Amino acid sequence: MAPDKVKTEEAMTFGELLALIADQKRRLSVLEVAFSYLAFGLDDKANQLLIHSLKLESQNQNRDAETQKHFAHLAEELEKRLHSAPPSPDTQ
Hints:
Layout: H1 14-40, H2 44-58, H3 65-84
Helix pairs in contact: 2-3
């Protein structure tokens, strides 16, 4: 269900709510994959800065504990993917 189809004035049925949640999960998954691919286009210094920034966000006390865990997990995943990636052509 696209966001423009969300009922704003009426109550949603349980089925509509589940469909909306499923759609949001798919959209979030696409964004996560796209974001992880963007990291491959960054040089080593930019990637290190990105990972460091994500780790700082994971310690940000203005965020709830679950959000902090998600930032930490994203930083870990980026580190894993970048360390397992083949060297970029400009470093050879």
